[in-house]
Write a structure and sequence with these properties.
The chain is elongated, with a radius of gyration of 23 Å. Helix content is 24%, strand content 32%. The protein has a six-stranded antiparallel beta sheet with strand order 5-6-7-10-9-8, with helices on both faces. The protein has a three-stranded mixed beta sheet with strand order 4-3-11. It has a two-stranded antiparallel sheet with strand order 1-2. The model is unreliable at 1-5 and 242-247 (pLDDT under 50). The protein is an alpha+beta fold. The longest helix is centred in the first third of the chain and has 14 residues, at 8-21. Strand 6 and strand 7 (136-146) form a beta hairpin. It has two domains: 8-71, Winged helix-like DNA-binding domain superfamily/Winged helix DNA-binding domain (Arc Repressor Mutant, subunit A); 78-233, Chorismate lyase (3-Layer(aba) Sandwich).
């Protein structure tokens, strides 16, 4: 009986994996070009890319379009608290974590009109936020509010804006309800670029809509996290209907 011979690309993946786990290839380090690696292992670039795909699937290597292949940094996870619409205050407050914020005014179009239930062209306040640990992104968010509901001063005072979105939280007063839709999917090219992940790495995407007591949508958000860098926690509260019977 003939034993199966391991494919050459698995041999290459094993060798690179050993170099990564032994620290000879350090976290964040850019690997040699695919052509150079293929030449070093004396294989075709097709075989070399199959080997890299194995490591990308294992979360050891990220392929960043236009930049190359990098040893993935082992980032700790942050926690997103579903139902409250916020990053967990304990992990979000860690000194090593920071959030960059860019705010502007845009006009509602496409999916934004549906999410916020506003006419096309309605003015919206847009906040684009990226949470980072060092230079490693942990998540990104686009947060939208009707322009008349944007907190006072956020466009004039960067510190006010930064504080308001530091946990990807609902920006205005506490809403009457929050609806969140969660799915796992491949990243878009823009998301892969911002989060510095490969197009093969799954992301966790959350679409959030907050409404007031009248049913008006007061905020909509699209949050995206690398699948290996976040935990999402939802808590369900049960109430007991106690009925007193008379004898």
């Amino acid at each position: 009986m003939t034993e199966a011979v391991p494919s050459r690309h698995h041999d290459i993946a094993d060798d690179l994996r050993r170099q990564i786990t032994a620290g000879r290839l350090e976290a964040g380090e850019r690997l040699p070009s695919e052509a150079a690696l293929a030449d070093g292992y004396k294989v075709s670039t097709v075989t070399l890319r199959r080997a890299l795909a194995v490591l990308q699937g294992e979360g050891l290597v990220d392929k960043i379009h236009g930049k190359g292949n990098f040893v993935r940094r082992r980032s700790r996870k942050t926690v997103y608290v579903g139902g409250w619409g916020t990053l967990d205050p304990w992990t979000a407050a860690e000194a090593s974590l920071r959030v960059t914020v860019r705010s502007t005014t845009v006009q509602a179009h496409g999916h934004l009109t549906t999410l916020l239930k506003v006419p096309v062209g309605s003015p919206l306040a847009e906040f684009f936020c990226v949470s980072l640990e060092g230079d490693a992104p942990h998540g990104m968010a686009y947060i939208y509010l009707p322009r008349d509901l944007a907190p006072a001063g956020v466009f004039d005072d960067e510190s006010v804006c930064r504080e308001a979105v530091s946990r990807f939280a609902v920006l205005g007063p506490p809403p009457a309800s929050i609806r969140e839709t969660v799915c796992a999917r491949p990243p878009t090219p823009d998301e892969a670029s911002v989060l510095r992940i490969s197009s093969a790495s799954p992301v966790l995407a959350i679409t959030r809509a907050a409404t007031d007591i009248t049913g008006r949508v007061v905020e909509a958000a699209r949050l995206v996290f690398p699948g290996d860098r976040v935990d999402v926690v939802f808590t369900t509260h049960h109430t007991t209907d106690e009925r007193q019977t008379q004898g």
